[in-house]
Amino acid sequence: MPMDSVSTGFDLFNTMVVIVPIIIIGVFVFMLIKGLGEWSSNNQSAILTVPAEVVTKRSRTSGGAGDSSARTSYYVTFQLDSGDRMELKMNGKEYGMLAEEDLGTLTFQGTRYQGFERRKLAE
Asked: Are 54 and 76 in contact (CB under 8 A)?
C-alpha cells in the first residue's frame, strides 16, 4: 500500500473529526436561536381571543427505541371565522378535551396556544 494513500486517509479522518462536531454544534446553535426568536415573538404578540372551529387533530411520537422513552407532541388545527387556519401545539390533556368540529372561542398568543372554550349549545 503506497504511503500517499495512507496519508490521504489520515488527512480525511482528521478533517472529519473537526468538521462533524462543528456541523453538530452549528445545528444546535441554529435551533436554539430559532426557538428563542419564536419565544420572543410570541411574548411580543397580543393575546387574541377569536371564534374558531377545531378542524383536525394530529399527534407525532418520536423516540422510544431501545432504552429511551417515547415523546408525543400534540397539534390541533383551528379555522377562524376569517377562513384562516392555524395549527397550534398543546399538551396532551388539552388535546384530549377537543374533538373535530368543536365550535368555540380560541385564545392564543402568536403561535402559543392559550385555551379553547367550547360554545354551549342552546337547550
From this structure: yes
Helices and strands of the chain, counted as H and E runs: 2, 5
Quick one: cell of 87?
Answer: 395549527
**Are the C-beta atoms of 105 and 50 separated by less than 8 Å?**
yes
104 three-state secondary structure = strand
Condensed to tens digits (0 to 9), the pLDDT of residues 27-75 reads 999 999 988 888 888 888 899 999 999 999 999 998 878 888 899 999 9
What is the spatial distance between Cα 91 and Cα 113, in angstroms, rounded to a whole number?
A: 9
Rounded Cα distance between 7 and 13, Å, is 10
CA distance 111 to 48: 11
Q: What angle do CA 84, 32, 28 make, to 5 degrees?
A: 120
CA distance 103 to 53: 5
The CA-CA-CA angle for residues 116, 119, 123, to 5°, reads 155
pTM of the model: 0.72
Tell me the three cell numbers of residue 92.
Answer: 396532551
